[in-house]
């Protein structure tokens, strides 16, 4: 075959391969975008992406209150305190709720209610227009973290400054919607948890139907959890040397439960 013909063929093959490569890349990118998010509907219904539906389905099949790989502690496994999880959730004031919407992660701090008598249920509430509440009501999964800080740990070595804490991480999804009576009971129990002794009808007016209709109370079913705690003083190499330069100790922040 003559050299000019070979060169022409090589050029044509190179152009064809480049064209096919670009088409393959575009196809893969389009498929990836479709998997993460489909076209958002025009109507008022709650939008949930394909992947949100899939992860919600996967999460709903998880066994209740266990510690498989998803909730297994990856660092300092010796600090695991799963038996303390109900007490930590009952003592916490703020739950940080994480979720993913259309590929974007969010973490929202929320007041919540938890009663150790029903250990697999945690209650959240908020406005119907809330991004988080809409996500949960549609069946989307969530991760819920509650942390109690018991002390600030200071060391003679920079690396060994730390916190004494107790924390719980839950993986959960929304239970079936509550009726009005159940929502009222949950809200009044939540108020009593934050303000012990306060009673509807005596210390404040009970929520009328119009107020209950304006808020969304969601019972979260906890599928899995892990609990972790650090206790004690600093662990630096010179922290037990009382005559060493610098200082070490714990600033106690704990409050009676």
Brief characterization of the structure:
The chain has 257 residues and is of the alpha+beta class. It has 6 helices and 8 strands.
Q: Can you characterise this structure?
A:
This protein has 257 residues and is of the alpha+beta class. It has one domain: Pnp Oxidase, Chain A, CATH 2.30.110.10. It is 31% helix and 27% strand. The protein contains six helices and eight strands; from the N terminus they run H-H-H-E-E-E-E-H-E-E-H-H-E-E. The protein has helices spanning 3-36, 50-60, 85-91, 131-137, 180-194, 209-214; strands spanning 95-101, 104-110, 113-114, 121-127, 142-154, 162-174, 215-230, 249-252. Strands 1, 2, 3, 4, 5, 6, 7 and 8 form an eight-stranded antiparallel sheet that branches. The longest helix is centred in the N-terminal third of the chain and has 34 residues, at 3-36. It is flat and about 95 Å long. It starts with a helix and ends in a 5-residue tail after the last strand. Residues 34-63 have low confidence and may be disordered.
CATH architecture field: Roll
Largest sheet: 8 strands, antiparallel
Q: Work out the count of structural domains.
A: 1
Mean pLDDT: 83
The CATH homologous superfamily is named Electron Transport, Fmn-binding Protein, Chain A
Order of helices and strands: HHHEEEEHEEHHEE
* CATH fold node name: Pnp Oxidase, Chain A
Q: Strand portion, in percent?
A: 25-35%
- The helix fraction, in percent, is 25-40%
Q: Regarding CATH, which class?
A: Mainly Beta
Radius of gyration over all CA atoms, rounded: 27 Å
């Amino acid at each position: 075959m003559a050299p000019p013909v070979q060169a022409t063929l090589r050029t044509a093959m190179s152009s064809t391969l480049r064209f096919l490569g670009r088409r393959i890349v575009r196809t893969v990118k389009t498929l990836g975008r479709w998997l993460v998010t489909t076209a958002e509907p025009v109507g008022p219904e709650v939008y949930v992406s394909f992947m949100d539906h899939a992860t919600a389905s996967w999460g709903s099949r998880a066994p209740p209150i266990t510690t498989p790989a998803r909730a297994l502690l990856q660092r300092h496994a010796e600090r695991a305190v799963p038996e303390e999880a109900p007490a930590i959730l009952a003592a916490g004031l703020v739950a940080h709720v994480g979720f993913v919407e259309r590929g974007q992660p969010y973490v929202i701090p929320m007041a919540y209610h938890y009663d150790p008598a029903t250990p697999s249920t945690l209650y959240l509430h908020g406005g119907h227009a809330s991004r988080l509440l809409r996500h949960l009501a549609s069946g989307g999964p969530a991760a819920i973290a509650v942390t109690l800080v018991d002390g600030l740990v200071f060391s003679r070595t920079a690396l060994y400054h730390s916190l004494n804490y107790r924390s719980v991480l839950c993986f959960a999804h929304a239970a079936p919607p509550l009726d009005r009576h159940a929502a009222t009971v949950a809200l009044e129990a939540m108020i009593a948890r934050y303000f012990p002794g306060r009673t509807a009808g005596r210390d404040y007016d009970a929520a009328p139907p119009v107020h209950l209709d304006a808020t969304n109370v969601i019972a979260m079913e906890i599928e899995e959890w892990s609990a972790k705690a650090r206790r004690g003083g600093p662990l630096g190499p010179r922290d037990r040397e009382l005559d060493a330069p610098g200082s070490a100790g714990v600033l106690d922040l704990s409050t009676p439960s």
